Amino acid sequence: MARSFKDTLRMFASGFAAVAMSLALVAEAAQAQGHPPARTVVGEEYTPTIWIDPDGCEHWVMDDGFEGYMSPRRTRDGRPVCRRSQICGVIPSDQLFRTDKSDIDENGRNQLDNFFKTANAFGFLIYGHTDARASDEYNMALSDRRANAVADIARAAGVRVVDVKGFGERQPRASGNSPEALQQNRRVEIYCVR
Amino acid sequence: MQMITIAKYVALGGFLSACASIEGGERTGAERSVDAGIDSKSLTQLVAGVWVSPDGCDFWLIDDGFEGYLSDRLTPDGRPVCSGVAPPNTVVGPFREGSDIPDTL
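YS: structure for the whole thing
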């Protein structure tokens, strides 16, 4: 009795698998044609507006009468959508570093020290970026060292460093491979947290 | 006693329907992008403070009179900003400046 029950289960399972497979095939065929099947959506219109936070980043906001709803507006890869005003300072790397180096000379130190002491911010986010001329891995490490070199000067100036990170060549400011574009992409960006 | 209870419910009902009309409870579609009623304004004018979560990270907190809003403060690559601007479970900044409605909550 127990055996036949097991057999029944097994038969049922294989039957289920076959049905699942045929369903998957149908779905694949529909996708291959490039047209998802038309369907009727039963919903209600909810149109948001945009609120801009003090950092300059956008949020979706809706007021339903009693309730309010809000959430950050993001790009599809998860970054917040922000206005330019968010950046506090951009330092071209060519002004601060020699090629492939991350140490900062006396003149650069003094300029950064002055910037951090007069920026009147609660804290700073410091991000390093490179151009795309070396390997991704090398550029990630180089931009990280450069961001940390700037962060060390911030800490020595007595201000709070909230976040430090190197993004390598992954977030270019300008597109293309012209010398001007490459130069714009070699940079350290400083965001002020107020 | 029963009369008092009924009166209480009637009064409560009256308050709720009054709120619905001043704040615009029956709202649809694009109307939801503005704050109507007594403290009406464009939602773009909301003033935020920073609420620090139990994890120590920053959120924008807005107390708009009737509505409350909470949204993430993010780094440029989408991670939470944990600035240390205040201890966990506290709010700093002008988060109640968006409305003249007194807030006793």
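YS: worth flagging: Chain B has one helix and six strands.
IM: good catch. Also The mean pLDDT of chain B is 70.
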